[in-house]
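ok trying this again, last paste got cut off
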Amino acid sequence: MSTTTAPAVTPLNTQDAEILLTAAVRAAEAAGVTVSVTVLDAGGHLLAFRRDDRAVLISGETSTRKAYTALQLDAPTADLVDLVKPDGPFHSLTTALDRPLLFIAGGLPVHRDGWLVGAIGVGGGAPEQDHGFATAAVESLGAGVR
């Protein structure tokens, strides 16, 4: 009987979360967009959150739900939108679970050495903008997005 142990992977920490948050906010500011940004660790626990004073209030909730969805499904939320449409294979997922899932672009899982270590969610801009801001943040950390 052979046992395989997972390699030691550094978890996402508060310093990483600040790098992600700052990069997303800077990307949004450069585009003239006010946003909220949420960073979760691999267990779904909040590591960082910031809502621009001028961002719409709901953006705080949407950024958090996008991050949670990306983490739970280990996929960018932009890739999931069509799957939950009425004719999509996972159309009932949005109501089947009592979880704060949100299938709008702007959430990305964060990987380190191929392992899921957390997620980021951005809300407040158009979905494509939020996705771009989250992507810029993950790229600034040097982490991978599958």
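PB: full thing came through this time. The chain has a mean pLDDT of 90.
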